[in-house]
């Protein structure tokens, strides 16, 4: 019998404004877990990759931190948070009537019932089929012009209700955003996601 998860390698947690995707502009409490084996070359939180660099933190301690703010929305991110059994953490948040979202590359089968599944596939490790079925939001980071075709390949597999977003990689935003604007005008099923938290100079 598998032991129940009681702690996670916690890199950081903070209350801020969601900057990306469907919930952009909404107050959100972020729980960032350490550990990732996807290895995106442009990742802006590479310090999250090694789980052992981050303290194992009891779920009860995480929940106490969440309760200190007036949040109704938590985002579990990483790293790659779906590496872990998130069932007990999500249940604890749901017990507080908090909506829970996850941001994942879709490389692992998700353990836990989230309210919002943000699927952001990466070229460095293929997603599992479940990700296409669960996704409420497909968010593809555009790093190169060839990524538009790659985005369409994923969009062709996604469920019918999923929202589609293209997001410029931050270091190339000035170069890529004009291309994304023109692409979305020609392909209006897509929307543009910007990292608005970076414009606001917040976490």
Description of the molecule:
- It is a single chain.
- The chain is an alpha/beta fold.
- The protein has a domain at 7-139 and 158-164: Alpha-Beta Barrel (TIM Barrel), CATH 3.20.20.70.
- The chain is 25% helix and 25% strand.
- The chain contains 6 helices and 9 strands; from the N terminus they run βββαβαββαβαβαβα.
- The protein has helices at 59-67, 87-95, 129-134, 147-155, 173-186, 196-199, and strands at 7-17, 27-33, 56-58, 73-77, 99-104, 116-119, 137-142, 163-168, 190-192.
- A 9-stranded mixed β-sheet has the order 3-1-2-4-5-6-7-8-9.
The main sheet comes to: 9 strands, mixed
CA-to-CA gap between the ends?
Answer: 39 Å
Question: Which structural class best describes the helix and strand composition?
Answer: alpha/beta
Strand content: 25-35%
Shape verdict:
globular
Oligomer: single chain
What is the overall pLDDT average? 94
Give the low-confidence spans.
none
Computed over alpha carbons, the radius of gyration is: 17 Å
User: What is the number of E strands?
Assistant: 9
User: What is the class of the domain at 7-139 and 158-164 in the CATH system?
Assistant: Alpha Beta
Q: How many individual helices? A: 6
